Amino acid sequence: MIVSNTKSALWTAAHCLHDGQSGQSGFYTNVTFVPAYRNGQAPWGTWEAQNLIVPTSFADGDIDKMIDADMGSVILKPLAPYGNIQDAMGGYGYSFSFNTDYDDVYTLGYPTEGYNRPASDFNNGEYMMYCQGNTEDAFPFNFLDNRLKMDCDMGQGSSGGPFLTGISQDIKIVGANSHTAGDPRSSDDLFSSEHANHAIAVINAVNGS
Predict the structure, then answer these.
(1) Residue 175 phi/psi, 5° resolution?
(2) SS3 89
(3) Which pLDDT tens digit goes with each residue over 140-171?
(4) How far apart are CA 104 and CA 46, in angstroms?
(5) If phi over 0 gives left and psi between -120 and 50 gives alpha, with beta otherwise, what is residue 69?
(6) Per residue in 49-58, pLDDT tens?
(7) CA separation (Å) from 51 to 6, 32, 34?
(8) Long-range contacts formed by 103-106: CB under 8 A, 24+ apart
(9) For residue 118, with 0-12 CB atoms within 10 Å meaning exposed, 13-18 middle and 19 or more buried, which class applies?
């Protein structure tokens, strides 16, 4: 969850919400969120989406969408008896900028596979897993590409999980799991789109909705 005026917002990757090419008709349907899901259990219930928001350039199929626009937000309907999800469970703050270098970052997800690891390690995505490390500029010699990169072997299924700083005191979202290196995967690099202008536009849209 991300702190917002709606008290009902999630932060994720745009490709979890939209097909990346069909404009307003490309949003996925029947999107739900199951907080604290684990091995078939839904201790906080299943929350339905009310609205989905992604950057316009992602929705319209911009060629650079995975570099700077693969993020989005889900606004959830209230759920009895909890009301709004932020009131019930809280939310993470955020820090959106062109910065790429952060120390002690955690990224979370429900991967079904990973780099150079057997699928049996992941139990079909039934458990939340995490990586911890530092992020850096994925392509420091390309000033137009400010993707964040960290070492993490989580793969398919972990998309949309947050990059978090300040895990022990002041948690903030600084990115979201977007994609890995190549197909087939060639390293344990995990990337987030830059969380600058597009991320700011999305959270502004959330707060104005």
Answers:
(1) -175, -175
(2) helix
(3) 999 889 999 999 999 999 999 999 999 988 99
(4) 31
(5) alpha
(6) 999 999 999 9
(7) 11, 11, 16
(8) 103/134, 103/165, 104/132, 104/133, 104/134, 104/165, 104/167, 105/132, 105/133, 105/134, 105/135, 105/150, 105/163, 105/164, 105/165, 105/174, 106/130, 106/131, 106/132, 106/163, 106/164, 106/167
(9) exposed
Q: How far apart are CA 189 and CA 191, in angstroms?
A: 7
User: Cα-flanking dihedrals φ and ψ of residue 95, to 5°?
Assistant: -140, 105
Two tokens at 107?
Answer: 């990224």
* Cα-based distances in Å from 68 to 5, 108, 177, 193: 24, 20, 12, 5
Strand partners, 49: 76
C-alpha span between 153 and 9 (Å, rounded): 28
Which two three-digit tokens encode residue 83? 């009301």
Helix (H) or strand (E) holding 200: helix 197-208
Burial annotation 138-147 (CB, 10 A radius, 16+ → b, else e): beeeeeebbb
Q: Which amino acid is at 102?
A: Y
